[in-house]
Amino acid sequence: SRLKIAGQAVHPILVMFPLGLFAMAVIFDVADLAGGPSLLGTLAYWNIVAGLLAGMLATLAGAIDLAFVRRADAKRMGVLRVLLNMGVLIVFAVILMVRVGNPDRAAGGGLFLLEVLALGLTGFGAWFGGELANGRVPAFARAAVGNRGY
User: Fold this and answer.
1) I need a surface site. Which of 62, 94, 120, 135 has the fewest CB within 10 A?
2) Is residue 29 within 8 Å of 48, Cβ to Cβ?
3) Could you give the CA distance from residue 26 to residue 113 in angstroms, rounded to a whole number?
4) Average pLDDT over the chain, rounded to whole?
5) Distance CA 106, CA 86 (A)
6) Do residues 47 and 22 touch, judged by C-beta distance below 8 A?
7) How far apart, in Å, do the first and last CA atoms of the chain sit?
8) Cβ-based neighbour number of residue 35 at 10 Å
């Protein structure tokens, strides 16, 4: 990682914020759909807003790190990771736009299922980024970028 503060890589630290915020949004929506006060839907909405902002900062830090990668095969893996993370942010942005139309910002059943799917993709993206950081590249990723002998 090239982007550091006090000797610590910034990107891994920033990734944890959207993960936690999106997870809390799902938890608040579970409580709201289970019959809790309508405030829980509003809290979930604002967690998604904060998660999107934190996710954009984490994606920017990841893109800066990716710009300094020299090896072409490692750069392709990094681009795959960035695209996965951007896809998750786009799904949560769509969820947010749909929720804006509801006065109490609550999610219905279908929107909640999409939110759970997006949270699963977020977890997968975090796992995938950790695998790349540890020097292990899953076989599906090698196949996706056309490099079988990584």
Assistant:
1) 135
2) no
3) 10
4) 84
5) 24
6) yes
7) 20
8) 7
Q: Tokens 């990107």, residue?
A: 11
Distance CA(27)–CA(116), nearest Å, equals 10
Helices (H) and strands (E) in the chain, counts: 5, 2
pTM over 0.85: no
Amino acid (one-letter) located at 41: G
Rounded to whole angstroms, the Cα distance separating 146 from 139 reads: 11
With b for 16 or more beta-carbon neighbours within 10 A and e for fewer, the 89-118 pattern comes to bebbbebbeebeeeeebbbeeebbebbeeb
- Give Cα 128 to chain centroid, integer Å: 11
Residue 144: pLDDT above 70?
no
What tokens were used for 143? 């196949």
The band of 101, judged by pLDDT with boundaries at 50, 70 and 90, is: confident
The secondary element (H helix, E strand) that includes residue 8 is strand 8-9
Residues 44 and 29 sit within 8 Å (Cβ to Cβ): yes
129 against 2, higher pLDDT: 129
Asked whether 103 and 83 are in contact (CB, 8 A), the reply is no
Of 147, 148, 47, 34, give the one whose Cα is nearest residue 95: 47
